[in-house]
Amino acid sequence: MRKILIVLALVLSGLASGCALASVLPTVITVVQDAILIIDEIQGFVDQHFAGQPDPVKQRAVQAAIGRARTALDLALRTSKGTADLSDKQMTVAMDEFRAAYADLLSLVEPMGVHQVGSQKLMASPAGLIVPSPLALTLR
Q1: Number of folded domains in the chain?
Q2: CA distance 121 to 94
């Protein structure tokens, strides 16, 4: 009887951690997809910008910042996909990395006409590209 109770306790704790994962994963996926959509739009915009106004040094810097942001998002997604790897600390590190990379990216592309306007919708304007704040900036 004691062995059955121990096994039952282990199964229930496994289910509880699985439930925690199940509740976190949809949020992480939504946040990552949102950020990737915004980064894709920024990348498309700056690719067109550099096609008309080549600047290899600045283009490499922008591509590096985009790469860092994508890598951080990939880490957040991978961290959230397995209970063995799920760690609040790892998720926090991934989101902090994304915030830093995204801030660097914005500082590089704002002079080209990319502007982040709070909860504004993604849209083109005569002044350039307006992007909303990624949900990943608020995930803790």
Answers
A1: 1
A2: 25
